[in-house]
């Protein structure tokens, strides 16, 4: 992750220097970089979609959001990667996989303690309520995650139904 950030900053500095001295070449490089980014993003999304379809046959899915936004995980502290990804609920698992970065969170439904909504977790406040899932991690310690989902009430009801069964 740090290498990606350093690489982006170095590219941005070189691009600005080129743009100042050679406007047309700098503009072309900028446009090509944006196109490259979206092609890379599409390839990553296609890969995640393929893995998703192999891992979760349609009959097992209780709830699905392909545009969920991961905001925070309590055990990870204040500095975290945030981003969009796939959120899936089955009878056995709540699974999130981020599209751009290789972040995967898998929570067995048996370890989920509570589900609700929150406006804030670890200083993160996106301006609208987030889905908050409290659970016991593999070491039996309390943890929680917060995500923005399209249908918050639907997710709360679906997770509550699964953990009560």
Give your account of this protein's structure.
There is one protein chain. By secondary structure, the protein is α+β, with helices and mostly antiparallel strands. Helices cover 40% and strands 32% of the residues. It starts with a helix and ends with a helix.
What's this entry about, in short?
The chain has 3 helices and 7 strands, in the order ααβββββββα. It has 165 residues and is α+β, with helices and mostly antiparallel strands. Strands 4-3-2-1-7-6-5 form a 7-stranded antiparallel sheet, with helices on one face.
Structural class designation: alpha+beta
Number of helices: 3
CA-CA gap between termini: 39 Å
Element string (H = helix, E = strand):
HHEEEEEEEH
Q: Name the average pLDDT.
A: 82
- What characteristic shape results from the CA principal axes? elongated
**Helix content bin:** 40-55%
Order of strands, widest sheet: 4-3-2-1-7-6-5
How large is the radius of gyration?
Answer: 19 Å
Give the beta-strand count. Answer: 7
The biggest beta sheet, please? Answer: 7 strands, antiparallel
Percentage of residues in DSSP E strands = 25-35%
Regions with little confidence, pLDDT below 50 for 5+ residues:
none
């Amino acid at each position: 992750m740090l290498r990606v950030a350093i690489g982006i900053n170095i590219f941005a500095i070189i691009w600005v220097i080129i743009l100042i001295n050679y406007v047309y070449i700098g503009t072309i490089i900028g446009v090509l970089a944006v196109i490259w980014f979206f092609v890379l993003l599409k390839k990553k999304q296609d890969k995640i979609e393929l893995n998703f379809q192999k891992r979760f046959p349609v009959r097992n899915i209780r709830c699905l959001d392909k545009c969920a936004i991961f905001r925070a995980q309590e055990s990870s502290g204040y500095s975290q990667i945030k981003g969009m990804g796939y959120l899936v609920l089955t009878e056995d698992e709540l699974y999130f996989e981020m599209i751009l970065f290789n972040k995967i969170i898998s929570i067995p439904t048996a370890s989920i303690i509570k589900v609700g909504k929150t406006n804030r977790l670890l200083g993160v406040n996106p301006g609208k309520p987030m889905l908050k899932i409290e659970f016991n991690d593999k070491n039996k310690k309390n943890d929680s995650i917060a995500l923005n989902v399209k249908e918050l009430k639907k997710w709360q009801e679906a997770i509550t139904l699964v953990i009560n069964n």
